[in-house]
Amino acid sequence: MAIFKEIAGLRHWRQALKGTLALVPTMGNLHAGHLALVRLAATRADHVLVSIYVNPLQFGPGEDFDRYPRNLGSDLQLLGEAGCQNVFAPDDNVMYPYGRQDLAIVLPPRSLSSVLCGRSRPGHFAGVSTVLSKLLHMVAPEVLVLGEKDYQQLRVVQRLLEDCNFAVQLLPAPIQREADGLAYSSRNQYLSTEERRIAPLLFQHLQELVRRSKESDADPALLAQATRASLELAGFVVEYLELRDGTSLQSLPRARPGARWFAAARLGRTRLIDNLAIDL
After folding, report:
1. Is residue 124 annotated as part of the catalytic site, yes or no?
2. Which EC class is this protein assigned (predicted)?
3. H helices within 62-106, ranges in order?
4. Among the four residues 43, 163, 172, 201, which has the most C-beta atoms within 10 Å?
5. What radius of gyration do the chain's Cα atoms show?
């Protein structure tokens, strides 16, 4: 396995590479959802590179940056078993050699980054846009693979690529779920045994919202209100539960083609997000 920790070695390898390259950016602590991205990437490019970097710019004050799980050894083993032989694992000195206090950053469109998760995580999507711009310049892939679980992030990145004229194809990957419907997430390991039992209710309620939204007299605001109450009764602290357009992320008064339900809720100390499209 080729493991790059410095930009010079990465670029030397990239310049000598024959064929196309797909990048799968991650923050490590890999799970089956990440490995599905790797397998999808391998169907669209001759080579796959996985980046592993816990980006501090994505974390706000009081968030879990310090305790975010870092398991490079097990990550490399999983990637090897999945057939990925190329990894970029830089540290902060490589990614931000002049520090983070006086840094050039990339600001995403407010219309996409100030809603949903952007309301409670100011600066998060600027951190995503900045680190991803750096990675794309370093790696120069033909294909970029991102999962749909972080759907707002996917839309922000899509606009970033379009607005900044990156020569890369964005390949969205469907949400990967455990057998009971819980979306795979590196933060799921924070859940206690009882919280893990409850957690799939978030997806189950989204499924019911999608079903009810297709009814002709469905009022999304009333549906969301009733669903929020049910989730909070089960132990969730709901941050948002909203019907929005899947492209613009603008709030919708009624379901229509391309609409999605978006949810974020805390269960204990774990923040869970999920989304589900309405197929009309």
Report:
1. no
2. ligase
3. 72-81, 92-95
4. 201
5. 19
